[in-house]
Each structure stands twice: as structure tokens, then as C-alpha cells.
């Protein structure tokens, strides 16, 4: 929720950058693709350069900035499309899978099973949001560990050289957020069904 407040405050600035990028002929799809490539780089760095975790952290930071900017360009240029949104969400999931796979492969003194659980619950958090929104419920902002929060945890601990601790925290955040969202949606669906009863 803190990050949501920060996003709201910096949105005017990001939108001005988005307008500048649009004027320069840079499209949202270009930024999405570049952000995705940087996420792939982060995964490779985690896998093959475990002694310099900070490099992977910088790649994730750069990928995250581009992920924010592609939305800003789309909004300010009027180029928001269903296909663009679908591609962005899909590439975000692939990026998560790739980054966690890199951590598992890099052998950071953490069980691959724990890494897999952290990834699985991270994907469940995203799935519950998508399913909830398809049913007509607003889920964004529900839970203590949305994607941005989880990535920030990984970045901070990778910068410090302890990404394995970050994975444990991500697992806790993802499990807690999944439970929060599941409970919220289950309650909301029950209330909606009761209102429909004669």
C-alpha cells in the first residue's frame, strides 16, 4: 500500500517522461521488450555470476523502470491496448519464472524447493488477481506483498549479497498475500451471491 501511494505521487513525473519518450518515437512495446530482456539478463546473472548478485539486482531495477515507463507512454499517448496489456502481464510472469530459475540454478545455499514455492505462490498471487478481476472485483492493492514489493525485497537482499534471505521473505509475503486475496474474494463473492437471492 505504501508503494501504491508512492506510485500516485510520482505518476505526474512519469507521465511527463512518457510524453517525452512518445515524442521521441519510442513505443510502449519497445519498452516492454527491453524490460523483458533485462529481466532475462537478471536471471542469467543470478545463475552464472552468484558472487556478484548486485549485477542481477541492477538489471531488475532497470527492468522495473522500463516496466513503469511502458505504462506511462501508453497512457499519455493513448496507445493503451488489450494486446499490449496482455503481453505486458504475460512477460511479467515469464520474467518472474526466469529470475527465480536463475536463483535456483545459482545455488545460493537455499533449497530449490523453497525457491519453487516462492515462485509458485508469487504466480498464485497474480492468478487470484486476474481471476478476481475477470469476475468483476477490484483486487489491485489487496495484500501486503504485490509484485513490486516482492521484487524490491529480492533487489535489496541481492544488493547486500544475501538473495537467499530475500527468497524466504518473498515466500512469506506471497503466501500472506495469496491468503488475503483469497479471503477477500471469497467474502466478496458470497456477499454478491446473497444480494442476488430473492
What distinguishing features does this structure have?
7 helices; mainly alpha; 82% helix; Four Helix Bundle (Hemerythrin (Met), subunit A); 198 residues; flat
Summary of the model, kept short:
By secondary structure, the protein is an all-alpha fold.
Question: What low-confidence regions span 5 or more consecutive residues with pLDDT below 50?
Answer: none
Strands, count: 0
For the largest beta-sheet, the strand count, sense and barrel status come to: none
Give the full name of the CATH homologous superfamily. CDP-alcohol phosphotransferase transmembrane (TM) domain
Name the overall outline. flat
The tally of helices reads: 7
Oligomer: single chain
CATH class: Mainly Alpha
CATH topology: Four Helix Bundle (Hemerythrin (Met), subunit A)
Relative helix content: over 70%
The helix/strand order is HHHHHHH
What integer is the average pLDDT? 92
Number of domains: 1
Structural class: mainly alpha
CATH architecture: Up-down Bundle
Kindly, what is the distance between the CA atoms of the first and last residues, rounded to a whole number of angstroms? 37 Å
Query: C-alpha Rg, in Å?
Result: 18 Å
Strand content: under 5%
Explain what this protein looks like in three dimensions.
With 198 residues, this protein is mainly α. The chain is built from seven helices and no strands. Helix 1 (2-23) crosses helix 3 and helix 2 packs antiparallel against helix 3 (53-77). It starts with a helix and ends with a helix. The protein has one domain (2-196): Up-down Bundle (Four Helix Bundle (Hemerythrin (Met), subunit A)).
Amino acid at each position: 500500500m505504501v508503494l501504491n501511494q508512492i506510485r500516485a505521487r510520482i505518476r505526474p513525473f512519469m507521465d511527463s517522461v512518457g510524453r517525452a519518450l512518445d515524442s521521441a518515437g519510442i513505443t510502449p512495446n519497445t519498452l516492454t521488450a527491453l524490460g523483458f530482456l533485462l529481466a532475462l539478463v537478471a536471471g542469467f546473472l543470478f545463475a552464472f555470476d552468484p558472487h556478484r548478485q548486485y549485477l542481477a539486482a541492477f538489471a531488475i531495477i532497470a527492468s522495473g523502470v522500463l516496466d513503469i515507463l511502458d505504462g506511462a507512454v501508453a497512457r499519455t499517448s493513448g496507445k493503451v491496448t488489450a494486446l499490449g496489456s496482455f503481453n505486458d502481464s504475460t512477460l511479467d510472469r515469464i520474467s518472474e519464472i526466469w529470475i527465480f530459475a536463475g536463483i535456483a540454478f545459482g545455488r545460493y545455499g537455499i533449497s530449490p524447493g523453497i525457491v519453487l514455492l516462492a515462485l509458485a505462490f508469487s504466480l498464485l498471487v497474480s492468478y487470484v488477481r486476474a481471476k478476481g478481476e475477470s469476475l468483476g472485483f477490484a483486487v489491485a492493492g489487496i495484500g501486503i506483498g504485490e509484485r513490486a514489493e516482492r521484487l524490491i525485497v529480492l533487489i535489496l537482499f541481492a544488493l547486500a549479497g544475501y538473495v537467499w534471505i530475500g527468497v524466504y521473505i518473498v515466500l512469506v509475503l506471497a503466501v500472506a498475500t495469496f491468503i488475503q486475496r483469497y479471503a477477500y474474494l471469497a467474502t466478496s463473492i458470497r456477499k454478491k451471491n446473497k444480494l442476488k437471492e430473492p
